[in-house]
């Protein structure tokens, strides 16, 4: 019989005993006995027997159930006869005293509603609603109770099923077990949630036992007494209950449970039931235990660190012995040993063993690391060695096993100690009595202890090295030719090296306790340097004169170490740099001054300009940038010496100009002058007058020559930098050169904007080249006799994202000026050859060539033949498919031109002279150069057919070209009449809008396909 059934049997006997006593009392009082089934008191109550809902008739004097209808029997699961043997507390879980109180309340009202927990025959406890009131039967008063399952009542409410499902799911999915326990002895758990089986391994019904059974069957004995006592105390106080104990689960595990419960009152505020929660806190308990272990772990480390921090070199060995003892006792090992590995030998640095003297370790004196090969390799590879048994040693560790067996060791952990990549030693914990499985925490502790010991040993070694360094430093200070000083925060000398006498002219002892500024020629500057410039993180320098040695200059370098507790001062090094200072002054003079004129140069002008700013609102400053017109002609006509004399004469006049605050020779014949006047208009007049005055006759080498000056003026604003002012003056100067009638140009925003636009366009062009934003179009070249396309000229196009289409006439000259032309040419050459090669693969250009223009800069300053060879190799294009077009100006250096043209011819690349007739227009040099043809400039073509002279020129060029066996291409053909006439004159090839305009690659593809 289960404990639950045993409890039921006891309650049945108690109920029968009560009923028997009441039965005897009723007979003695002459009352009618209703125990007979034939004589049921319910028969005397209207509708009692036939009611659909469960009906109970209860005697309020003793709580006996004197009658029950069939609905009640079905509801509770007991036969009517059994129910009539019960006292009401067999069903109601409340204490008997509370039940009596509620029966007395019910007698006072016709109908009273209660909510109770009732027991059922299937051992369930459910929430029921009881509506009860007094009825008279045979001269006696009974309580007629109608019972409803509150769950069924609630189920009829709107959305109850959904709410119930959610609540049930919540209870079942909680990571805890929910329970309900009676408030009265034996404190039976009347409800245990289904989570019990998942979390505790017991079916819920197995756990629905009384409190004593709960603790005896499921709680560990060591927790049983005190936990039960604590729970009984809360029965008296009614306070929330909370206790933690170990619980034996259905699958044999032992877990820690937190048992929490609160006392829930009924609607009248009386204790009704305990609602509780069982939470598995095993992980928390494990964490707490681990934290306790770690706390002890950290306390050990803290003690070790504290001992090592304060240890001196003399006490290091004794401190290490103490540390080994503390760690050995904490870990409860037999042996803890610290080895030093040096020069291949293993030396015992310190050891500890348990109280048993047999555990003492006697390391063999003849044992070296060379003998323990496997051991040494593991340590040098920073490998930690953890052995539970010596059988775990590798096969090659025979020597190690022999040594360990000789020492009686059966388990060990070895932690290597490293510093700066060097093996310093190892820390060994060992067992001699029994094998041991080493935990991670133990290994971590040994590792950290090893690191602390390593740091301490290194610190002691560092202190020894530092002491040696201090000795060396003292010797260095005594031997240094520089004076070394230490000042306090007020600048007073606290230390001075012996070299102070030779550097400062004062004995070192005479400097002590005196301010160093008293010996400096410029004390205010020195004090500012100390206060504002001297930094704690880096040394700074200053050069100053001395009061005791006026002709000498010293360099003082220092660092602020007032925050260093060992120094607490400013450390200075004073060096005599007189000779260096004089040399620097001479070099500076040469670097900032023009040797020819004696004026400052560009660098000196910018440096001096930094200190000039308009002093007041009624003062205007401006920079005039000017140069001599046709100065190169003067040099060529007379001599370079005459040119130099002219420049010196101009410089002399500038020096004597009253309004000139500063004059400079910037370069060649260009000068800059800083002018001052009352306002802007006066400043412009002063600049114009100065140019007028400088444009005069000069005596140059005994000859009178007239020199004319032209310039640009820019005003100096307070916020301007010298570079910006000079740049604006030079922009204005460039503008003046374009204005033939005006000698002076004044900078304005338009000039600046033009310069800015040019710079912006240059930047955008550079970015376009880098990002591949340029595109190639191709203009067909045709055989004028047959009309067949024979070549395609590659023409670069630029579609700017903001400016739109930028004309090649704008960006190509810009590329030539800025040096981008070579990069642009290489890109065009590569793209054009690659494109033609692609068309050849498609079978569209079997008889075509491609021509690419080269600038004179490209041809003269880069290795064009090598570039062409590289591009042809990369693209796979045959050399005879490529034609390079050069202007006549590229041929001005015949030697260079011929050498490169010969290499191109040897390579197989054709060369054509472009824009022929626009330059020197001489066929004479052509017969000496290996070129393949010429291209007539469009200026020769434009008037052909309308102007006889133009036609005659073209005719003669064609005849001479034929005699030199050069092909002739006419470009710029825009009208049909030009095309007809050129064909009649026998011109070989032509191109222009009258034939085809430049087309993008996709249009060329269509054109070539149409040609097929």
From TrEMBL:
- Tell me which InterPro entries the record gives: Biofilm_reg_signaling, EAL_dom, EAL_sf, GAF, GAF-like_dom_sf, GGDEF_dom, Nucleotide_cyclase, PAC
Q: Per its UniProt record, what PROSITE patterns does this chain match?
A: EAL, GGDEF, PAC, PAS
What Gene3D superfamilies is this protein classified in?
3.30.450.40, 3.30.70.270, EAL domain, PAS domain
> Where in this chain does the record put each PAS domain?
163-224, 469-524
What range(s) does the PAC domain occupy? 241-293
Residues forming the EAL domain are 758-1012
Q: Where is this region: Disordered?
A: 1-46
For this protein, the record's CDD domains field holds: EAL, GGDEF, PAS
Bias type Basic and acidic residues, positions = 9-22
Pfam family name, one? PAS_8
* Domain (GGDEF) ranges: 619-749
Name the NCBIfam families on file: GGDEF, sensory_box
Q: Give the protein's recorded name.
A: Response regulator receiver protein
Task: Give the species.
Answer: uncultured prokaryote
């Amino acid at each position: 019989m289960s404990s639950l059934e045993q409890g039921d049997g006891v309650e049945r006997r108690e109920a029968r005993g009560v009923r028997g006593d009441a039965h005897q009392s009723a007979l003695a009082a002459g009352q009618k006995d209703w125990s007979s089934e034939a004589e049921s008191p319910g028969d005397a109550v209207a509708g009692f027997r036939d009611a659909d809902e469960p009906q109970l008739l209860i005697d309020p004097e003793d709580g006996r159930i004197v009658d029950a209808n069939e609905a009640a029997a079905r509801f509770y699961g007991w036969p009517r006869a059994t129910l009539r043997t019960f006292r009401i507390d067999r069903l109601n879980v409340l204490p008997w005293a509370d039940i009596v109180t509620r029966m007395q309340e019910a007698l006072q009202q016709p109908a009273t509603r209660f909510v109770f927990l009732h027991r059922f025959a299937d051992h369930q406890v459910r929430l029921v609603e009881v509506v009860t009131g007094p009825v008279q039967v045979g001269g006696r008063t009974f309580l007629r109770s109608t019972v409803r399952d509150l769950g069924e009542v609630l189920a009829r409410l709107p959305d109850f099923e959904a709410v119930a499902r959610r609540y049930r799911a919540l209870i079942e999915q909680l990571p805890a077990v929910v329970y309900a326990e009676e408030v009265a002895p034996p404190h039976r758990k009347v409800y245990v949630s289904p989570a019990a089986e998942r979390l505790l391994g017991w079916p819920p019904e197995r756990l629905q036992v009384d409190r004593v059974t709960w603790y005896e069957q499921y709680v560990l004995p060591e927790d049983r007494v005190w936990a039960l006592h604590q729970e009984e105390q809360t029965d008296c106080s009614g306070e929330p209950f909370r206790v933690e104990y170990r619980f034996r689960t259905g699958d044999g595990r032992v877990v820690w449970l937190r048992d929490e419960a609160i006392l829930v009152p009924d609607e009248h505020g009386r204790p009704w039931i305990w609602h509780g929660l069982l939470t598995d806190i095993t992980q928390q308990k494990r964490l707490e235990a681990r934290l306790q272990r770690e706390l002890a772990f950290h306390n050990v480390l803290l003690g070790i660190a504290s001992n090592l921090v304060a240890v001196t070199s003399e006490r290091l060995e004794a401190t290490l012995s103490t540390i080994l003892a503390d760690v050995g006792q904490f870990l409860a090992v037999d042996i803890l040993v610290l080895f030093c590995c040096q020069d291949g030998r293993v030396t015992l640095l310190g050891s500890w063993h348990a109280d048993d003297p047999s555990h003492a370790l006697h390391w063999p004196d003849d044992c070296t690391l060379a003998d323990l090969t496997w051991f040494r390799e593991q340590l040098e590879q920073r490998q930690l060695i953890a052995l539970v048994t010596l059988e775990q040693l590798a096969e090659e560790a025979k020597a190690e096993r022999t040594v360990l067996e000789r020492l009686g060791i059966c388990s060990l952990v070895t932690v290597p100690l490293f510093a700066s990549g060097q093996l310093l030693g190892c820390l060994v914990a060992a067992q001699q009595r029994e094998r041991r499985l080493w935990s991670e925490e133990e290994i971590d502790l040994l590792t950290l202890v090893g690191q602390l010991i390593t740091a301490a040993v290194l610190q002691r070694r560092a202190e020894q090295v530092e002491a040696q360094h201090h000795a060396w430093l003292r010797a260095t200070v005594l031997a240094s030719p520089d004076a070394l000083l230490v000042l306090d925060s007020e600048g007073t000398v606290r230390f001075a090296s012996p070299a102070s006498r030779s550097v400062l002219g004062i004995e070192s002892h005479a400097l002590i306790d005196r301010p160093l500024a008293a010996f400096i020629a410029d004390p205010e500057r020195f004090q500012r340097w100390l206060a504002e410039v001297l930094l704690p993180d880096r040394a700074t320098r200053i050069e100053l004169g001395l009061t005791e040695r006026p002709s000498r200059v010293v360099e003082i370098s220092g660092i602020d170490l007032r925050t260093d507790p060992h120094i607490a001062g400013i450390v200075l090094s004073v060096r005599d740099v007189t000779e260096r200072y004089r040399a620097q002054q001479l070099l500076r003079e040469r670097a900032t001054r023009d040797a020819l004129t004696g004026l400052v140069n560009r660098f000196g002008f910018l440096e001096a300009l930094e200190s000039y700013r308009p002093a007041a609102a009624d003062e205007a400053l401006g920079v005039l940038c000017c140069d001599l017109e046709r100065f190169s002609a003067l040099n060529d006509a007379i001599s370079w010496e005459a040119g130099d004399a002219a420049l010196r004469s101009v410089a002399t006049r500038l020096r004597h100009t009253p309004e000139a605050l500063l004059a400079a020779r910037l370069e060649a014949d260009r000068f800059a002058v800083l002018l001052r006047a009352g306002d802007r208009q006066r400043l412009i007049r002063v600049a114009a007058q100065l140019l007028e005055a400088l444009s005069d006759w000069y005596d140059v080498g005994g000859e009178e020559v007239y020199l004319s000056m032209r310039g640009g003026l820019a005003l100096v604003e307070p916020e301007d930098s010298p570079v910006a002012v000079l740049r604006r003056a030079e922009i204005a100067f460039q503008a003046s050169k374009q204005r033939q009638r005006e000698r002076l140009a004044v900078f304005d925003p338009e000039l600046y904007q033009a310069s800015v636009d040019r710079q912006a366009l240059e930047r955008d062009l550079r970015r376009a080249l880098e990002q591949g934003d340029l595109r190639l179009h191709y203009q067909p070249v045709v055989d004028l006799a047959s009309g067949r396309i024979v070549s395609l000229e590659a023409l670069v196009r630029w579609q700017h994202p903001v400016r739109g289409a930028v004309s090649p006439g704008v960006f190509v000259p810009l590329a030539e000026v800025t040096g981008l032309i070579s990069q642009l040419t290489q890109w065009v050459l590569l793209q054009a050859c690659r494109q033609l090669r692609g068309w050849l693969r498609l079978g569209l250009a079997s008889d075509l060539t491609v021509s690419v223009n080269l600038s004179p800069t490209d041809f003269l300053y880069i290795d064009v033949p090598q570039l062409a060879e590289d591009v042809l190799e990369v693209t796979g294009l045959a050399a005879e498919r490529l034609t390079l077009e050069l202007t006549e100006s590229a041929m001005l250096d015949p030697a260079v031109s011929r050498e490169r043209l010969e290499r191109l011819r040897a390579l197989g690349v054709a060369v054509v002279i472009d824009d022929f007739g626009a330059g020197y227009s001489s066929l004479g040099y052509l017969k000496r150069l290996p070129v393949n043809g010429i291209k007539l400039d469009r200026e020769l073509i434009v008037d052909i057919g309308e102007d006889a002279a133009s036609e005659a020129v073209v005719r003669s060029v064609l005849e001479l070209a034929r005699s030199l066996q050069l092909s002739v291409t006419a470009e710029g053909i825009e009208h049909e009449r030009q095309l007809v006439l050129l064909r009649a004159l026998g011109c070989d090839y032509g191109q222009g809008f009258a034939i085809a305009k430049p087309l993008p690659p996709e249009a060329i593809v269509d054109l070539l396909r149409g040609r097929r």
